[in-house]
Design goal:
Strand order of the largest sheet of chain B: 1-2
CATH architecture of the largest domain in chain B: Orthogonal Bundle
Order of helices and strands of chain A: HHHHHHHEEHHHHHHHHHH
Strand content of chain A: under 5%
CATH class of the largest domain in chain B: Mainly Alpha
Largest sheet of chain B: 2 strands, antiparallel
Radius of gyration of chain B: 24 Å
Number of strands of chain B: 2
Helix content of chain B: over 70%
Structural class of chain B: mainly alpha
Largest interface: A-B, 110 and 107 residues
CATH topology of one domain in chain A: MetI-like fold
CATH topology of the largest domain in chain B: MetI-like fold
Number of helices of chain A: 17
CATH architecture of one domain in chain A: Orthogonal Bundle
Number of domains of chain B: 2
Largest sheet of chain A: 2 strands, antiparallel
Number of strands of chain A: 2
Shape of chain B: globular
Oligomer: heterodimer
Radius of gyration of chain A: 28 Å
CATH superfamily of one domain in chain A: MetI-like
Number of helices of chain B: 11
């Protein structure tokens, strides 16, 4: 009702001139709503930027420390560094805070883990500053021994382990998911489609810890019985389990890409005398390759950053070998396993954040490629330009 | 003749190959569900669901973990759903599809969706706990440690960031199903743009917002990596009473019971039971989301 009366008034006022009717009246509520909505929408951009800044910020001390000639100056520089990066007003304040957090969290972490962890970490809070130089040097070595008299942070073995698991899982998941998507898009009856699609969508809803549990309890023993290898938890088991997690992503995006291929392609091919499978394999599939490529890239991204399955099913021993039946330790699992037990602000802590930055950058690039390169190509191909 | 016969065989083989890969995937899903249901069904009882762990977590129930999970997803939804909905409204109602701003926001949303969950955990630690929390302690509590450590508020907010894209995508899809005619009619009656959105578009897409919320809740209930170091605890004797308390979660409970427990074999029934509870929870949520979404799509195609 109110709307109508308002409208009536408005038109009464505007009877005099046509121009006034077409001109919009300025309203504060609308103006504010639009501004607020726009502001909130920018939040997602802000979050991405913040994630990058804050994850990277915590890994910075490793690089900064190296330049400092003397120990005392090194500490002074840290203060400055924190201040600079964070834009916080009082640098001394920050330094104090870090100290405090370090102490308490240390107690806290130990208190937390004594009941559970069989490994007792003895990390001294003061060891950080001497280590940074050697830490940076040891980054590109093979040995990941963060907790020892002489800690070494070689992430090479972790990187290789991560890639090994990723390759295994994609080799397992991609063919299965793509072929299944091809079936649902090209061959399946309506009824089959309605069974297959929701079921695989359901798999996307499986918590990774549940898949990890399944891999740890059942899959590991089953695969060991089949392949007769020594270590029960290894990159092969982890790879298969992560592949299960990646299947719904690859399937869904591939299926979308396949159904996005214009119907005319299909009809033209059939009209030329090609059979159904020939059309599916030689017309539809090639037309959708950029989309399938994107699907595989996003699947890789999912596996690359998967933490819980890696923690539970890969065995978590950092080894360089290329044998798929060896235990490995992935980058994400390393963060997940060790972050709760390190001292805040310690070199080990910074290195873990550096690994996090690596993961972030890698998945960001993968996503960017999937987004821009692939999409452009797909559009071109389908529109025939 | 022979050629076409060969082709036929090939066709059947290839169709069979694609069909069998679909069946393999479904078989994996069925086996997983079956194993967990068979392993855990004897453990499920009213007592298991409503009592605390006992004897160093080798006996007793999982009530604190269920309670913690529920609290986590509630706080998370309160944070994620409004922001996600508003972002979706901006993208569908206000932003010009080809404007660079809208494209950047879309890219940001998709980036948020693919960032590994462990990175959110690192961000929660670096931003919420060490930056916001520590600042809050310094300004309000004079440096006393309260917010600058892991707790349920930071964990929930971290999880909210993770589930934000889920909400945005679902709501956007639902907003698009509201017919253009309805918007035009509302505007033609003299309603402003905001009135149109508030009174016409949003009520028409309420099921989409619900789908988004359900999917976000199911994702949040299952994720463990983001809260590993932002608030979850191995064992707490009391239920979380304030935002600054630590809490237990089903997923983390499974993880610690299977990998950190001193006696894995003895607690096997509890592990299966907890996994079954978590799986059943996410299942119910997901199925209802799928049904809702299916209805929205039906509506769209009509």
């Amino acid at each position: 009702m109110t709307k109508k009366t308002k409208k009536g008034k408005k038109s009464d006022e505007n009877v005099s001139g046509l121009i006034d009717i077409t001109r919009k009246k300025f309203r504060w509520s609308d103006y504010l709503a639009e501004k607020v909505i726009k502001g909130v929408a920018f939040l997602s951009i802000t979050i991405v930027v913040l994630i990058f800044i804050f994850v990277f910020r915590e890994s910075l001390p490793i690089f900064k420390q190296e330049k400092a000639p003397a120990k005392t100056e090194a500490i002074a520089e840290t203060q400055e560094t924190y201040g600079e990066v964070t834009d916080k007003p009082a640098t001394t304040d920050v330094q104090e805070t870090y100290g405090e957090v370090t102490d308490q969290s240390n107690n806290h972490a130990i208190g937390d883990s004594t009941s559970s962890a069989d490994k007792s970490y003895t990390v001294s809070a003061g060891s950080g500053y001497d280590d940074n130089k050697s830490a940076l040097k040891s980054l590109l070595t093979k040995e990941w021994v963060p907790v020892s008299e002489k800690p070494r942070y070689g992430i090479l073995a972790l990187i290789i382990g991560t890639f090994k698991v990723t390759i295994i899982s994609i080799l397992f998941a991609a063919p299965l998911a793509i072929l299944a998507a091809l079936y649902t898009a090209s061959f399946a009856s309506r009824r089959m489609k309605e069974i297959i699609k929701p079921t695989i969508e359901l798999l996307a809803g499986f918590p990774s810890v549940v898949i990890g549990f399944f891999a740890l309890m059942v899959l590991a023993s089953f695969l060991q019985d089949v392949f007769h290898y020594d270590t029960r938890l290894n990159s092969f088991v982890g790879g298969i389990a992560m592949g299960i997690a990646a299947i719904p992503i690859i399937f869904t995006i591939t299926e979308d890409a396949l159904t996005a291929v214009p119907r005319t392609f299909n009809e033209a091919s059939l009209a030329l005398g090609a059979s159904k499978w020939q059309t599916a394999f030689f017309v539809i599939l090639p037309a959708a390759t950029p989309g399938i490529f994107a699907a595989v890239l996003l699947g890789i991204g999912r596996v690359f950053g998967e933490t819980m399955i890696a923690l539970m099913a890969t065995g978590n021993a950092s080894q360089m070998g290329l044998n798929p039946f060896e235990s490995v330790r992935t980058l994400a699992a390393t963060i997940g396993a060790e972050m709760a037990e390190v001292v805040f602000g310690d070199t080990h802590y910074n290195v873990l954040f550096l690994i996090g930055s690596l993961l972030f950058i890698f998945t960001f690039i993968l996503n960017a490629i999937a987004e821009f390169y692939v999409k452009g190509k797909l559009m071109k191909r389908i529109q025939g330009k | 003749m022979i050629k076409s016969f060969k082709n036929n065989i090939k066709g059947i083989l290839i169709e069979g190959l694609t069909l069998s890969s679909a069946l393999v995937i479904i078989a994996i899903i069925v086996v997983m569900i079956a194993v967990i249901v068979i392993g855990g069904k004897d453990q499920i009882s009213w007592e298991f669901l409503t009592s605390f762990p006992e004897d160093g977590m080798t006996k007793g129930g999982i009530f604190p973990a269920i309670y913690g999970t529920a609290l986590l997803v509630i706080i998370m939804s309160v944070a994620a759903v409004p922001f996600g909905t508003i972002t979706a409204i901006y993208l569908t109602e206000y932003a010009n599809e080809n404007a660079i701003i809208a494209k950047v926001i879309r890219f940001a949303v998709r980036t948020l969706a693919v960032i590994p969950s462990i990175i959110y955990g690192l961000f929660g630690l670096g931003f919420f706990i060490k930056f916001v929390g520590t600042e809050m302690d310094n300004t309000f509590l004079g440096g006393q440690l309260k917010w600058g450590q892991p707790n349920i508020l930071w964990a929930s907010l971290t999880m909210a960031l993770l589930t934000l894209p889920v909400v945005i995508v679902s709501v956007e899809e639902a907003l698009k199903t509201v017919p253009k005619d309805l918007r035009a009619a509302s505007l033609a009656l003299g309603a402003t743009k905001w009135q149109t959105i508030w009174k016409v578009v949003l009520p028409g897409s309420i099921s989409g917002i619900m789908t988004g919320t359900i999917l976000a809740v199911s994702r949040g209930a299952g994720e463990v990596a983001p809260i590993l170091f932002t608030g979850v605890a191995y064992y707490v004797a009391t239920l979380p009473a304030s935002f600054s308390d630590q809490f237990m979660v089903l997923g983390y409970h499974i993880y610690v019971m299977t990998t950190q427990s001193a006696n894995v074999d003895q607690t096997m029934p509890i592990q299966f039971g907890t996994t079954l509870v978590l799986l059943a929870l996410t299942f119910i949520l997901n199925i209802s989301a799928i049904v809702l979404r299916y209805r929205i799509r039906q509506k769209k195609s009509n």
